Known about the structure:
Blueprint: E1 17-21, E2 26-30, H1 31-40, E3 44-47, E4 59-63, E5 86-88, E6 94-100, E7 108-112, E8 117-121, H2 131-144, H3 158-174
Parallel strand pairs: 1-4
Antiparallel strand pairs: 1-2, 3-4, 5-6, 6-7, 7-8
The site of one zinc ion has 7 residues, from loops.
Amino acid sequence: MWSLADFRFDETIDAAEVYLNRGDGFESTARDEAIAFAHERGANLVAWWPASSEAGDPWCIVAKVSLPLRWEQIPIGQSAVDERLWFDAPCGKRDFLVGSGNTFVGRMAAWCPHQAVSYNVSRSEMGAMSEESRYFVAGFLAGNAPGYAVDADGEIDDADLAAWRAATDRFRRTGFWYGRWGTCQVCGCVLLPDTCDDRCHEHSTVDV
Ligand SMILES: [Zn+2]
Ligand SMILES: [Zn+2]
């Protein structure tokens, strides 16, 4: 999600021209003219999403802004633990999956009712689990896997694509994504980025 620090309106929109819809669709408009248009309507000119260098002139909307800038506030619901999402946990008892870990790829949020602590857990740290938990984990890992590499022209290298397929396939089974470069200490090939091993699959049982 974006930071409020990236919110831009009126003169903080750093562009000479913006795109603005004054009734007939979005058209390129001088920024200062667009600001005047917004102010005449008792509102401000707001950049619709954070600027990126390659995206060109910002797209803007007319909307009221009050200072100091602040986020909308909503009541935070106490989401109940779903007891069907149990698994045999590192604590030795049954804990519950409650969401995304939001830290490293593959990490899920869990709740231990015995010690009353929230923590993050990976697939490989979970023992037996309910059928509901198995599908929770499968869905989470499918959505959480990193995307494949695309070059500046939008092209995908065949070898990169094959490696991505293999790495994400293994990730869906292990739930582990190392995210660092490594090489096989036997043959010197570059390892798929999900593993922290120092041997490739072919040489995983060979003594150096
Ligand atoms: Zn526990
Ligand atoms: Zn090897």
